[in-house]
């Protein structure tokens, strides 16, 4: 979890106490937490959120909209006590030769949204409360991101738990993160923060659609010419 662990704990306590003031819940970080690897009686909740990273070696910064936040929950009705274990998967710098995995930095607003969604899920799974159709509160993306996810430097992907790659037992992504039809490589574009200014440096993948159309058109012309030549030759004989 990020260095602001106390912020997560404080916000969680404020939210859970609003709905269950007589029950005791705790939130603790657990770096060994894995998706769908649950102890008996525990339940799971996953979210994909927007966050920023900074390399501790070269100070390079980047943003990602696919930061996996994993929760395992356990509720004891007899003791009126609940536990939540949390893990935030890290990412590493793609430009350093031996980069370290860096923890993400979330805005206060997105921390509140993530934990609000967690409390909704606790009410639904642990207390059988809430509406079945209750939707998640979407994360705030400070900048527009598109393009391929950097799976080679994503901790969740490397461990086989990143849903974008379709590997491992990871759950499916929320609808809001699924790319629209007829789009190519527009899941996430890494945006780097230029060290010399406050502007963003970005890379947009090339679009090969026009090249493909031109090739198809030329192929059709060649086929038509061949047919015409064969037809004229047949008529002369």
From TrEMBL:
InterPro entries with a match to the protein in the record: R-trans_p, ZAR1/RTP1-5-like_Znf-3CxxC
Membrane topology, as annotated: Single-pass membrane protein
GO molecular function list: olfactory receptor binding; zinc ion binding
Organism: Prolemur simus
Positions in coiled-coil regions: none
Gene Ontology CC, one term: cytoplasm
Phylogenetic placement of the source organism: Eukaryota, Metazoa, Chordata, Craniata, Vertebrata
UniProt key word Iron-sulfur: no
Subcellular location: Membrane
One Pfam family in the UniProt entry: Zn_ribbon_3CxxC
Biological process (GO), any one: detection of chemical stimulus involved in sensory perception of bitter taste
Signal peptide limits: none
Positions of transmembrane segments: 211-229
Keyword terms: Membrane, Metal-binding, Transmembrane, Transmembrane helix, Zinc, Zinc-finger
Main location: membrane
Encoding gene, per UniProt annotation: RTP3
Residues covered by the 3CxxC-type domain: 48-160
Record's protein name: Receptor transporter protein 3
């Amino acid at each position: 979890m990020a260095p602001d662990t106390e912020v997560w704990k404080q916000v969680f306590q404020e939210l859970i106490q609003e709905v269950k003031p007589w029950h005791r819940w705790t939130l603790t970080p657990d770096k060994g937490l894995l998706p769908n690897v649950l102890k008996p009686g525990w339940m799971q909740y996953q979210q994909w959120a927007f966050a920023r990273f900074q390399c501790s070696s070269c100070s390079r910064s980047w943003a990602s909209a696919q930061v996996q936040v994993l929760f395992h929950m356990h509720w004891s009705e007899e003791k009126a006590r609940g536990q939540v274990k949390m893990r935030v998967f890290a990412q590493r710098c793609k430009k350093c030769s031996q980069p370290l995995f860096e923890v993400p930095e979330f805005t206060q607003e997105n921390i509140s949204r993530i934990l609000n969604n967690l409390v909704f899920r606790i009410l639904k799974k642990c207390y059988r409360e809430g509406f079945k159709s209750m939707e998640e509160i979407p994360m705030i993306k400070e900048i527009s991101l598109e393009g391929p996810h950097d799976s080679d430097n994503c901790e969740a992907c490397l461990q086989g738990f990143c849903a974008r790659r379709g590997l491992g037992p990871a759950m499916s992504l929320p609808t809001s993160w699924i790319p629209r039809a007829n789009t190519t490589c527009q899941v996430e574009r890494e945006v780097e923060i230029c060290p010399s200014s406050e502007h963003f440096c970005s890379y947009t993948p090339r679009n090969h659609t026009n090249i493909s159309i031109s090739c198809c058109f030329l192929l059709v012309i060649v086929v038509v010419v061949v047919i015409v030549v064969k037809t004229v030759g047949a008529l002369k004989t």
